[in-house]
Design brief:
Largest sheet: none
Strand content: under 5%
Order of helices and strands: HHHH
Number of strands: 0
Helix content: 55-70%
Length: about 70
């Protein structure tokens, strides 16, 4: 759950590093509000789908492969 929340935090303010990178490469005529609003659907999907999957299937959310165990 922590990883899902941390990944989501990279996509929106106040720590939206992906948005800072986008601001640096976007043309000057593109307003900041436009790509902030463009990120909202992706943030919503990540919160809804990512969080719901981790909550519904917690074992799959943190299950790491173990040596000697077959898939």
């Amino acid at each position: 759950m922590l990883c899902v929340n941390m990944q989501t935090s990279f996509m929106h303010p106040p720590f939206g590093f992906a948005l800072f990178y986008l601001r640096g490469v976007a043309p000057k005529e593109v307003k900041e509000l436009r790509y902030l609003l463009g990120a909202l659907p992706w943030v919503g999907l990540q919160i809804i789908i990512g969080s719901c999957l981790v909550i519904a299937f917690p074992k799959d959310g943190d299950d790491l492969p173990r040596p000697g165990r077959r898939a």
